[in-house]
Design goal:
single chain; about 425 residues; alpha+beta; Cytochrome Bc1 Complex, Chain A, domain 1; 5-stranded mixed sheet; 15 helices; about 20% strand; globular
């Protein structure tokens, strides 16, 4: 059972005790991500995530690492489009220590000018690494194509130019206005006493006050913009991404989309994998995935292939998506797919980290936490008709974006040809 409390200052706490395990996972979730950044601050959220590991008023960066290693724990963080997460996993006997370390980082990071300069170089190298990773670059190019001029299309990492302009005062000001109580969820799951955990969390998070600015979340208008982008890169493979409009976070069609995506390209038995890789042998890798945001969503297909196979592969991708619009889903396929999703979901619940993530992110982005029983009912409620109706809604060949990375001049299909960038 998930226990939810709101502290007096607005910080929300979600706790889920689990029996039969010794681990406990703890996370701090901040409703701030790359989507909240104006162009001149592109990359700020990700930079702040890095800086919270670079030393506090009482610990150096090495001492932060040593403190967690000394208790055998795991400490990490990541930045997404609409939120940032800081989290740890430890034995239950070290829950208090993990909370103290995370809170020290969260509230007492120094943002030392020398550390900022060093981390700027680290992130610049991270940006270069992504540019040298064509699969990642293809996904970013698709976002840029579909959401031009919108923070959804900008890099989470920022650019060398944007992060190069950040001053210490920019970090302090941004945290003061974006890391505010109303934007924070603290979640914990695993072997824990919920009363003791709540008391400890409230002691650390219950008293701070900061002024807030409105979240830069969309007003519901459609931002998806069909288009194409080709990034020239002297590599042997072509990396192809095809994007369709998805559905927003919290949509009642979430599980219809999960079923549709699983059937389309969510595994080795999916239509894309079986037809394009196994039957035709045209690609090395192919899969589909979904992303949900406030007021917006995306269903994408990725493939890695020889450039000369791109026109046929793209035709087959579009043909497979069109089949969902024209043909019946089939009762057995639907039942098998729902069972696959149910089993994967239920097995994931054996992890304290997964449960901590589910309740923290759910409360942050949806304002509530759905129980495993509720989610299982949502999956069970998906029908052949609802999947086909969703396919007709989002798999529109007139609303599609295409991005490629590789020797784009060798792509013959005119619809994929765009000026190299």
């Amino acid at each position: 059972m998930v226990i939810i409390n709101t502290l007096e200052n607005g910080v929300r706490v979600a706790l889920e005790p689990m029996e039969g395990i010794r681990s406990a996972a703890l996370g701090i979730w901040v409703r701030n991500g790359a989507r909240d950044e104006p162009p001149e601050l592109n990359g700020m959220s990700h930079f702040i995530e890095h800086m919270l590991f670079k030393g506090t008023s009482s610990r150096t960066a090495k001492q932060i690492a040593d403190s967690m290693d000394a208790i055998g724990g795991q400490l990490n963080a990541y930045t997404a489009r609409e939120y940032t997460a800081y989290y740890a996993r430890v034995l239950d006997t070290h829950f208090g220590a993990a909370l103290e370390i995370l809170a020290d980082m969260f509230f007492n990071s120094r943002f030392d000018a020398g550390e900022i300069a060093k981390e700027r170089n680290v992130i610049t190298e991270e940006i270069s690494m992504y540019k040298d990773t064509p699969e990642d670059l293809a996904h970013d190019a698709l976002s840029e194509t579909l959401y031009p001029g919108d923070p959804l299309g900008a890099s989470i990492l920022g650019t060398p130019e944007s992060i190069g302009a950040f001053k210490r005062g920019d970090f302090i000001e941004y945290i003061e206005t974006h890391y505010t109580p109303d934007r924070i969820v603290v979640s914990a799951a695993g072997s824990l006493d919920p009363d003791a955990a709540l008391e400890a969390i409230a002691k650390v998070f219950g008293s701070f006050r900061r002024r807030s600015v409105p979240a830069n979340f969309p007003d519901g208008r459609v931002r998806f913009t069909p288009g194409s982008k080709a990034v020239a890169k002297d590599i042997e493979q072509l990396h192809l991404c095809v994007g369709f409009p998805g559905i927003p976070t919290g949509s009642p069609k979430t599980y219809d989309l999960a079923v549709l995506n699983t059937m389309l390209g969510g595994g080795m038995s999916s239509r894309l994998f079986q037809h394009i890789r196994e039957d035709k042998g045209l690609v090395y890798s192919i899969y589909s995935y979904t992303q949900g945001f406030k007021g917006e969503g995306l269903l994408s297909v990725y493939a890695a292939l020889a450039p000369e196979n791109a026109p046929e592969t793209l035709d087959l991708i579009m043909a497979e998506t069109d089949k969902f619009r024209r043909r019946e889903v089939g009762a057995k396929l639907l039942a098998d797919t729902k069972e696959q999703i149910q089993c994967n979901y239920l097995m994931s619940l054996e992890s304290s980290s997964t449960r901590m993530t589910n309740i923290g992110r759910g409360l942050l982005m949806l304002g509530r936490v759905y129980s495993p029983e509720e989610i299982s009912r949502f999956i069970d409620a998906v029908t052949e008709e609802s999947v086909k109706a969703l396919a007709n809604e989002i798999l529109d060949p007139e609303r599609v974006g295409i991005a490629t990375v590789g020797k784009s001049e060798r792509v013959l299909r005119a619809g994929m040809s765009a000026p190299a960038t």
